[in-house]
Amino acid sequence: MRKLPIVVLAGRANVGKSTLFNRLLKQSYSMVSSVPGTTRDFHEGIFRYTDSTAITLVDLPGVLEGDYLSELAFEKSKKIIEKSDLIVQVVEARGLTSTDEEIALYLRKFNKPMILVVNKCEGRVDLSDFYSLGIGDIVEISAYHGLNVYQLEDLIFSKITGQKFEEPTPIVFGIFGAPNVGKSSLANAILEEERFIVSDFAGTTREVVAKSFRRLGKSWLLLDSAGIKRRKSYDKELDGLSVSRSISAMKAPMGILVIDASRLVTHQDKRIASLMIERTGASIIFLNKKDLIPHSSLGVVYNNVKSDLKFMDSPLIFGSALTGESVHLVLENLKDLWEKAMTSYNKKDILEAIRKAVSLRPITVENKTLIIRNIRFESKFPLEIDIKSNVRSDLVPKSYLRYLINTVKKDLDMKGINLRMEFKD
Ligand code: GDP
Ligand code: GDP
Fold first, then answer.
1. Which pLDDT does position 95 carry in this prediction?
2. pTM higher than 0.80
3. Between the chain's N and C termini, which has fewer beta carbons within 10 Å?
4. For a pocket test of ligand 1, which of 17, 22, 31, 32 has the largest count of ligand atoms closer than 8 A to its C-beta?
5. Residue 188: what pLDDT?
6. What would the pLDDT profile of 36-70 be if each residue is shown by its tens digit?
7. Confidence band (pLDDT; 50, 70, 90) for 408?
């Protein structure tokens, strides 16, 4: 499988890189802000031009070392530019600054194809000044209003022509959990490189950051939804809205629930777990910070968490994002679940399993013995099934439905798959 070409968006703060990035991706993976230097993280996403042509688009927080770019971020930026196939420098229509000139000079040293984007062109703009940067291809756009963005797309793909890319559907997954449990650290450990800025402060990373990569013969898209944070005024209650927003930002993803082994499972952990069961297609639990637990207590901690989160029924991996212990099991487990979910479950087997469960524990509803007539796949991933029976759907006890779900899951070895079933009339 060939790698997608990498196109970077570079430029000084506030010229509209994030706005352009969002416009191109048509998804809000990156927070748009007017405070210079707010965008410190590297945002990355797959931009599809046609069905079979796509690029990886990277929004760089900056390229020059200075007030708003640490040495670490500078080095990362440089590495990404070195790997890139095309550099898009963004400047503002109102005129060039000396920083723009320094950036252009710096970028040209990489000897990559370049495009200059003059952004915020809502009216007529004289482009002659902009040629002084020495970049031949200039496009005037308004990222905010979407003007000329298609021309920019065409120009990008004329510069990296002849390359056809067929990227299979990536396995999309998110990392969920309370603040400070180690979500960013786990993301880092999975990516095996310092791409996210890990911090000790709760709620530092507010956006959903996307990162695509290939591993285990699959392409993956990691959505780092560090937006899950707690509102102080709620005390231990969770800011449910921000959780739902983070989760609903994703389409049929898989979820990793991160739990901090050095403290007890909290109410908040459980709330996030139930949201994941409702929203994601499949999930696993990563019990993090194993390195902080004394050897003699490992078994107790593991069993306590397992029992506190029994309702989640997901593979549980005990490891450490910091030391890397068992991190490799995360993607292996996700891959297994994904393949199982995508290929294994058919209507016939599930119908049979439901009928078997009913025959093992028959119930009577309004003097009628429950008979399963048929089922319908509402959605394959997440797996949602409607059941038709000989009784009124609202009279089937919730506890019986739970029994059916649990039995079917056990019977068909669906540990970690979030099976949803409902009786329908
Ligand atoms: P970045 O720091 O380069 O990522 O810049 P942002 O995307 O955060 O944009 C900085 C500011 O410029 C924000 O207030 C945007 O709304 C604004 N902006 C972005 N694109 C345009 C545009 O095409 N026209 C105008 N007038 N403003 C824009
Ligand atoms: P997030 O808020 O969930 O993204 O958590 P972070 O990844 O920012 O981690 C919060 C803190 O826990 C940081 O100080 C990390 O260094 C620390 N941390 C993360 N994983 C581990 C681990 O496996 N072991 C230990 N000892 N500390 C960890």
1. 93
2. no
3. C
4. 32
5. 83
6. 444 456 777 777 776 567 788 888 877 777 655 67
7. very high
Please state, in angstroms and rounded to a whole number, the distance separating the CA atoms of residues 207 and 176: 13
* Range scoring the smallest mean pLDDT among 202-211, 329-338, 395-404: 202-211
Amino acid at site 308: D
**Residue with CA nearest ligand 1 atom 17:** 16
pLDDT of 46 reads 74
Strand, coil or helix: what is 127?
coil
Sorted by where each starts, the structural domains of the chain and their CATH numbers stand as 6-161 (3.40.50.300), 171-343 (3.40.50.300), 347-424 (3.30.300.20)
Over the chain, what is the mean pLDDT? 81
Q: Is residue 59 a contact partner of residue 28, using CB atoms and an 8 Å limit?
A: no
Q: Which residue CA neighbors atom 22 of ligand 1 most closely?
A: 120
Bridge partners (DSSP) listed for residue 173: 222, 254
Compute φ and ψ for 308, nearest 5 degrees.
-65, -30
What span, in angstroms and rounded, lies between the C-alpha atoms of 104 and 10? 9
* Ligand 1 atom with minimal separation from the 12 CA: 3
Please identify, by atom number, the ligand 1 atom nearest to the C-alpha of residue 59: 4
* Amino acid sitting at position 59: D
Query: Which strands form 218-225's sheet, in the order they lie side by side?
Result: 208-215, 218-225, 171-176, 254-260, 282-288, 316-318
